[in-house]
Each structure stands twice: as structure tokens, then as C-alpha cells.
Amino acid sequence: DAKTTQPTSMDCAEGRAANLPCNHSTISGNEYVYWYRQIHSQGPQYIIHGLKNNETNEMASLIITEDRKSSTLILPHATLRDTAVYYCIVRVEGSGNTGKLIFGQGTTLQVKP
Amino acid sequence: GAGVSQSPSNKVTEKGKDVELRCDPISGHTALYWYRQSLGQGLEFLIYFQGNSAPDKSGLPSDRFSAERTGGSVSTLTIQRTQQEDSAVYLCASSLLVGTNEQFFGPGTRLTVL
């Protein structure tokens, strides 16, 4: 699975959009971009994933550049409960893939009042 | 149950003792994963089960670590002759099918080896 690079930490004001970047310059054509987050003392939580098109769900939006070498997770209106470590992961899907997740160090997002 | 459950939530043991950690996945989920998270470290894959297929044990750090999944449901992670470096939070996750989008994680078991 491709390696990802994320900033170690970021701050965001409550109510504002949080934009979390991720670089995955060695991503392969069949690798998806996944985002998980881990709130303190809890297990990780799935947020969103995509291949090449931008994706949106009730939690967040995922913007993937046209060359797929980077992406941005957007939390449109951050709340204090969004304070967590956010992990960007790339992995292959489909038969023959175990689906194991390779976590990096992630970005610690601190939402401030 | 609504989600993945793990027991115990906390376990303190002495160096050299064996421990067993339990995971109850979401009913109907065929894939089950074990990860661990050491203090200040990221999450590390340990082992994966899918139905009746042979498990992927590629992440187990040593032969002191083993895991079973009985009847395609409950899983037990066993650590023999525990060492202080085994201290970590052990997380279990399940997904409906192998390689599908979302893995649902349990709250973890915090293991402390004195």
C-alpha cells in the first residue's frame, strides 16, 4: 500500500471548515483513499473514501486532485467533538485483498472554541 | 449487539504470564481484524480472519502471539509469556465482507504488563 504524508497537527476554530491535507504521490491506479479518525480513548471510526471523484457524506467531503497524488478531507462546520487524530490511508480493494489498514501517524486536529 | 465489543477493557498482568483478549464482532460480519496501538505509536495490523480461509498472520510480532476465531464469530487473541513491550491497546475490527469500505472498531483492550 502507498505511503501517505500528513501534517502532524492542525488547529481549527469551532464552526469553521477544517481542511486536512494528505499527500499520496505514489498511489497506484487501483488504490482508494480512505479517511478514519480516532477520538481520544476510542477505536478508529470510518469517515469517507474515494477513488478519483470527489465524495461527500453526512460527515465530510473528500476532494482528490486530478492526478490523485493528494487529497483533502473537509469537515464543513467543525465542532469540539471533531477533535481527534485523522488518518489518511490508501489501499487496494477487491478480491484477493485482505483489507488490512496501514495507519500512519495521522493529523491531530484540535478544534478550539 | 450494536457494535464490536471487546473484553476485558483493561488488563494488568505480570511479565511472563499469558493473557487472552476477546473480541465479539458485529453479527454477520465475515472479516475480523486485530490491531494494536502502543503508547505514542500508530495502529499496527496484527492478524486477519475471513470466513474459513487461512488467517493472514503477517502482522504478528512474534510466535508468542496467536489468535483464533471460533465458528466464524468470536475471536481470541492470546499472548504467551508477556513482555513489557507488549503493553498497548489491542483493537479489534470487523467488516461485512473482506476488503469492503468500512471497518467497525471496538473500544479496545488496554494491556499493561508490569
Q: What would you say about this model in short?
A:
In chain A, 0% of the residues lie in helices and 46% in strands. With 113 residues, chain A is mainly beta. Chain A starts with 8 loop residues before the first strand and ends with a strand.
Any overview of this molecule?
The complex is a heterodimer of chains A (113) and B (114). Chain A is mainly β. Helix content of chain A is 0%, strand content 46%. Chain A contains no helices and nine strands. In chain A, strands 1-9-8-3-4 form a five-stranded mixed beta sheet, with no helix packed on it. Chain A has a four-stranded antiparallel beta sheet with strand order 2-7-6-5, with no helix packed on it. Chain A starts with 8 loop residues before the first strand and ends with a strand. Chain B is mainly β and 114 residues long. Helix content of chain B is 0%, strand content 46%. Chain B has no helices and ten strands. Chain B has strands spanning 5-7, 10-13, 19-24, 31-37, 43-50, 65-69, 75-79, 88-95, 104-105, 109-113. In chain B, the strands form two sheets. In chain B, strands 2, 4, 5, 8, 9 and 10 form a six-stranded mixed beta sheet that branches. Chain B has a four-stranded antiparallel beta sheet with strand order 1-3-7-6, with no helix packed on it. The termini of chain B are far apart. Chain A binds chain B through residues 34, 38, 42-46, 49, 87, 92-95, 97-106, and chain B through 4, 31, 33, 35, 42-45, 48, 50, 56, 59, 91, 93, 95, 98-108.
